[in-house]
Design brief:
By secondary structure, the protein is of the alpha/beta class. Helix content is about 35%, strand content about 25%.
């Protein structure tokens, strides 16, 4: 079904003895997008991916991948899915090309004719004959991505695919993922700690901490919620200005710092703020809109969760 999400989870939970690694995780990943899966170390990202790929079983709740229930049989979905996981494992004394041949044969030969093409796509065309044991961390990640692409899957689940890559390699991977989605109609579920890259490549994100969701939505909409306005005033007017601004319904918060007021409010309300202050003959010496990054949002949310 074209509108069916590629991933759907409901109350997905995984507990290891007394540790709850994933806690009632509920989310939907739409088709035809790059979807970012974010969280601090130990948040439950890799455990979630392992459950989605059938590598470990959930304690409670459930999930579907490409319409297949992870508890009842993932094989049809896995045939249409390519994946990389943390610390990809290959045979150290085989070449990169031979490792891909083994991967293809283990899946019934699917994609064996595409080995040279995928090596080219991930930037290993000139290193396919080198032994895996001499590969750098970044080259190992590239080979893992090549293996995920072998059978030309419609859906990719990628766990830290740019780990160890240099800036050029990160940019190449970002461009490749966007092209696969925009030009080929594929879907990508991307777990990464490189928030600047995620902001540039992802359509939507979900942020988890301590195993549960703390934010999710379109990247542009989440960042818009973090927009702010900064106002500088003379000392004799700052208390009056703070009282006026706290009385505006659409100002969510006002924080004072020396002679500056930091407002959590839509950035396009700058004019109305100036007019509200001017009506009481308060005139800022400076009024600027401040934009937010995904890193700002991430740090704010995870910091708030630490204090909750």
């Amino acid at each position: 079904m074209p509108d069916e999400p590629v991933i759907r989870t409901w109350d997905l939970t995984k507990q290891f003895k007394s540790t709850i690694a994933v806690d009632n995780l509920t989310m939907e990943v739409p088709r035809g997008e790059v979807f970012g899966f974010l969280g601090p170390n130990g948040a439950g990202k890799t455990t979630t991916i392992a459950m989605l790929l059938g590598l470990i079983h959930p304690t409670a709740g459930g999930a579907e991948v490409l319409g297949c229930d992870i508890r009842k049989g993932l094989r049809p979905a896995l045939r249409r899915t390519g994946a990389t996981i943390e610390n990809p494992a290959f045979y150290p004394y085989l070449t990169g090309r031979d490792n891909l041949r083994v991967a293809a044969l283990s899946s019934g030969g699917a994609g064996i004719e595409r080995i040279d093409a995928v090596l080219e796509r991930v930037g290993l065309a000139g290193r396919g004959s080198d032994l895996f044991k001499v590969y750098s961390t970044g080259m190992k990640q590239r080979l893992a991505l090549a293996a995920a692409l072998l059978h030309d899957p419609e859906f990719l689940i990628l766990d830290e695919p740019t780990n160890g890559l240099d800036p050029a390699g990160i940019q190449e991977t970002r461009t490749m993922l966007r092209r696969m989605v925009d030009e080929q109609g594929k879907s990508v579920f991307l777990s990464s700690h490189l928030l600047h890259e995620v902001q540039q490549v992802c359509d939507r994100v979900v942020i988890i901490d301590r195993g549960h969701v703390i934010a999710q939505g379109r990247v542009d909409e989440l960042l818009r919620q973090q927009e702010a306005i900064e106002i500088e005033l003379i000392e004799s007017e700052i208390e009056q200005a703070e009282a006026i601004l706290r009385g505006l319904d659409w100002v969510d918060a006002v924080r004072r710092e020396d002679l500056r007021l930091h407002l959590t409010a839509p950035a396009d309300r700058s004019r109305q703020i100036a007019e509200a202050l001017a009506a009481s003959e308060v005139y800022p010496t400076q009024l600027v809109r401040t934009s937010s990054t995904l890193e700002d949002l991430f740090l704010s949310l995870t910091r708030d969760n630490d204090h909750a």
